[in-house]
Amino acid sequence: MLTTAQLSQLERIRTIESLQAFLDYHKLEFKWTYFLASEGKGLTVMEAIRAWYKIELYKADFDQWISNRGLQKAYDFFAITNQGLNPHERRVRFRQQIEATPTRPIVADTPKGAARRIFSRHADGNLILEIDNTSLSSFNSCARAAEFRLVRGRGSNSSPATRYGSAIHLFLEKRLCGVDHTAAMRSMIDLFKTYPPVMPDEWRTVDHAINAMTQYEAFYSQRPPLKVLKDDQGAPLVEIPFCIPLTTVDVNATFPWPASMLVNGETNADHLKVGKVYVYWTGKIDALVEDNTGGGPLDHKTTSMLGPSFYKDFELSQQMIGYLWATRKVFLDRFSGVPRRVTIDVIAGRKPTKTGVAHEFAREHFTYSDAQLEEWEANTKHLVADFLSHLLRGYFPMQTNWCVAKYGVCPYHEVCTMSPSHRLGHLERSYEPMTWSPLHPTTD
Ligand code: SF4
Predict the structure, then answer these.
(1) Which of 8, 137, 400 for a ligand 1 pocket mutation test, highest count of atoms within 8 Å of Cβ?
(2) What's the pLDDT tens digit per position in 46-92?
(3) In the chain, where are the structural domains located?
(4) What is the rounded CA–CA span in Å between residue 172 and residue 180?
């Protein structure tokens, strides 16, 4: 069994060589390599890995089994479809078919492209800084992690948990837009097909998501439906991007970083001269909802850790207060009263066990006061100012209280544990360019 830290490292591995180094270092083999080895084939770990990637392409009937359930299931399926053969013949045939398939290299989880830069150039020559919830979280935690992610543009774009969450989000978005259950399910399954195969230990599979959404719909069929607000054309206000001016910072100084590293589309390697920075709060709201007890933004949250601290987190959630702040700025006229709350639609999923509950659902309202919204605005402006002052100093200090936090080990832990002279090279080689933005999801 891989530890959480090992799985987190594994998520970031992109080449056969670094995978081999990882396996050697941890003296690890995957469960499915035991399967092949125990069949007397004598495969090395790397041969088994190559076999894994070959078989994924073998034939359409295998795709779903292999990408979502693991090699053992693929073999089981093969055995079912080859009942005329004895077990030994089946294993030989299975192995032959693996070997007959074309090789495919291990590839990145998401398409690689140029990293998005932290600034864009305004037409008047000043800079635009669009901050979203991810940037705000970075400003709020370790400054060195913010440097790696936002300034150097390196990180991990996805993990099984984020991919699973995205698939669930897609289903729920379609349903809120009026798409029928079957078509929404089809979209979710199609999205899973674009994902790389998951580790055999991983429970966040397409089957788990299908069960989750089937049970979710059954659960809420007995309860009052969400009332989603509509725009002027009658379209439901679902998945709404926003970009709202937050503040303007007068910098009037030179950042000790190349312009090409900080500004989208610029190639100048000179240090960046900065006049003003126009700061915008950006994001995407899952939906706007209202009933006779109140209204505000709705946010779907998938989690595997549902408990008192999960809900406690929302009482001061910068994301949710910021989304309510944005809702009031842009969509106030859609509501019958002033929106004062955020509805969290919780989809809790766990690894299936014989006795445990695999799925749980809840909808909770969190009400925020006017004072909290004002304080969010002041806090966010100061966090942006702190980030800009780190940029100006040319130094982002390590804040090591965040190295091991509530959601596990910091994704840059392996970078920070290296000697300083090796860190940036490793960051460049082993981490993906950060390309996502709520306003430009397909840019780069
Ligand atoms: S490992 Fe620790 S010091 Fe390094 S970026 Fe993460 S939180 Fe900061």
Answers:
(1) 400
(2) 555 555 544 443 343 344 444 444 455 455 555 555 666 777 776 67
(3) 4-99, 128-155+227-444
(4) 11
